[in-house]
Every structure is written in structure tokens, then in C-alpha cells.
């Protein structure tokens, strides 16, 4: 066991590199997924058929096919057609499209949950299409979306472990190298569990903070600063009950 | 009153032979002032339910018109059509003589694109039963959002105007509050200020006191009464507050099944209605 730990300590820089690759894929994938989710989520609820139709098809396609197969397709099949992407790019694109498709449903559902009166007030004030979404609808939809997006983000992190199969030296790769070096399966995979868990937990904390932020912007709950403050928060006086 | 000189309108009533081209005819000014609102044969269906079946009526500039009638008679639909919250299924809606949502190109009844609708929509404001303030913004932000981004006013100018309006509706001290820290009556007063900040020529009031506690209704009506007295905004209101309708409006339209069954000044309408349907309705409403 102490040998195992020594081996792990010796390999810490490589663990760092593996974690960086995993984070790079996770964050890159998450950003792309969010863009895809917003585009397809709003696309799915437009009145124009030629926007809604393709949006729905893309969502169903990427939700309905395996992430591993998508990854392999992009990595092994796409070059056949003359488009060769770097392994990292393949990972990010596959994760982004796959989780973006799930995210699109989250976006669509949350946007639909914003009361209709908010859209109507936006029309009455003559706010433009994009303006109303950016300034009125999304700020309210975020608060609803964040918990579900947090779920997807954690799944995306774990999905990034597939990077190992397209020859990326990510955390998963590091774990298997560690196993080879120590010949201790229990130790290596336990380290793997812990490191993934720590990353996932940090992401969760970040998303929780975002949720608090968006809720407080809607006047529901304390601000992030109040939550993080060590001293107890004096209950803010609710005015208005006239 | 807005300048009419350079305003054109597609009359659409002409049995034009040049299909495909836009018939642009200058508004005939000799017939007197152009009505602020005009409905021509407007049809609105929800599925099989025909709410408006060829409705015709007009509202002169500066008029205060109350729409009364049983629920389902189409009153709110009229306001919602004017705010483009619903799409009509036929006929023309004109604002200051300009087709607003649809027009005739030759014989063909076509939708007017959003870009042109937006120009006309700037003249129309609406206050809702459920207030519909934006919860992600403060009171002040709610009021200046559209003036800054739609009317392209400077922020300073918009804030000055917003503060005046907040003063007018008695909400100055709530300027920086989030909207869910306000009571219903306070929210509605902010919503009125928000609509007025767009300097509308036409203000639509859709049962603005229906969601309020009875003791607060008077405050909100007081604010509206003052606006009616101090401005020349054309108002179209749907309300169950008959006393308020009587004080504020100069014309009352009684609706039933999407048609105007009676039209009179408030005094006549409320004291001496002629139509049987109106009598029944008023009796039912005034009973409680």
C-alpha cells in the first residue's frame, strides 16, 4: 500500500495533466453543449416549421444515439470523408452535441415554464425578439434550468472518461496507467473514484452558487454574498404587504 | 395628436385589379380626424369557437371607451388583438388609419411583417390583470427597459421620466425594490407607470383591478382617474368596476357574442339601457 502511495505521489504531475485534459474536455464540451442547447431549445419552440423541424430532428438524433458510437464515428469515420479532427476536438464536439441535445430539452422546458404574461408584457413594451429573450425570459429561465443543467454537467464530466478510447491522456488514462504501474486494481480505481468525485463535487458547488445567484436576481432568496458570508444573515425585511 | 401628413395607408377596400402590388392611398383628410382605432370586419376564432365575427367599430383620438359584457363576449380579445397578443383571422385593424396586423394586397389578405408592426405597436400600451412585471428587474429597471432599448432614449432621460411617473403613481420610495417585494396594488401601479413610460397614444387596460384586494382597488383606480384627467391618451378599458367606467369613460360599448349590442355614453348606459341583454347584464353585475 505504501508503495502504491509512493507511486501515486511520483505520478502527481501526470495526474495533474490527466485532470487538466478531463477538465478541458468537460468545460469545452459544456460550453458547446450550452450553445447547442440554447440554439436547439429555442429552435424547437419557434413557429416556423423549417426551424422547428430540423431542431427536433437533431435533438432526437443526438439524444437517441450512443455517445461512444458518436465519438468513434467522429474519430474513425469522419477522416474517411476527409475531415480529420484532433482527438480533443472530437471529444468536445461529441460531448457538446450529445449533452447539448439533452440540454435543449431542459432549455425548452424551462423557457416554456416562464409565465406567458412575461412574453405578453414584452410584446406590449415592444421589446425585440432577441432582446426579450436575453433580458426577460432567460434571466427567469436560468433559475429553473440550473439544477437540471448541473445534473447534465456531472454526467458530461463522467462521459468525458470515454476520451481514453480515442487516445486522449485524460484522468481515465492516468488511472489505467496507475493500475499498470502498481498492479493494484483496488487502489488505482479507488483513486479514480475519489478524483472524479472531487471534480464533480466542485462542479456541483459551482452550479449551486449559480443557482443562488439567479434566484436572488429574481428576488427569491438571499444573494450569493449573503450565503457565503460567515456571519448569520439578518432576515431582510419584506416590504410591501400593503 | 400625431402628425397625419406623411402617413399613408393601404385602404385595401378597393377592388384593385393590380394584384400583387401594394395599393397605397393617402388618408383622406377631408373626412375629419382619423380614428385612433378602427376595426373593419375583424374575425377571431379559437378553434371552432368564433369570438369575433366581422366586428366593426372605431375609437376617436382621445376617447375613453369602456367595453362591458359577459365573459366570453370578446372584450378582452379585442384588447389582445390590439396588442398583437392574438392573431386575427380576418378583417383589418387600423391604428391612426394605418393597417396594423394585416392588410390587403389587391384581394389578398396578408400578414404585416413584425418589423412594420413594431413601428405601429410603439403607439399602443397595455396594462394587464396580472401586472406581468419583470421579476428579474427592480421597479425602476422595469420602467426604463423599453424606453431605453426600444425608444432609444438616453438612460438619464428615461430615469428622469420614470421618477416622474413613480411620483405620479405614488411609488417613488419603492424605486429600487424587486417587484416581488411589492403588494399587488403596488405592482399594478408600477405596471401603469411602465406602460406610460412608453408615451403611448393608446392605452389598453385589461381588467386591471380584478386581481386586487377590494381595499386596494380604489388606489389603482385613483391613479388611472388622474391619468385620464391629465392626459389625452386614448383609452380602451375592460372592467367590472362600473362606477369607475362611469367616471372615466365617455363611451360604453356593450358586447355580447362578439357583437356590439348597445353603445351609449356612460350615463345613459348605466341608468337607462335600451337593450334587453344590457339590462340583464347590468342587473347581474351591479347586484354585487
Automatic annotation (TrEMBL), chain A:
It is found in: Cell membrane. Its main location: membrane. GO terms for molecular function: transmembrane transporter activity. GO terms for biological process: amino acid transport. The keyword Transcription regulation does not apply. Belongs to the binding-protein-dependent transport system permease family. PANTHER family: L-CYSTINE TRANSPORT SYSTEM PERMEASE PROTEIN TCYL (PTHR30614:SF0), MEMBRANE COMPONENT OF AMINO ACID ABC TRANSPORTER (PTHR30614). This is Ectoine/hydroxyectoine ABC transporter permease subunit EhuC. The gene is ehuC.
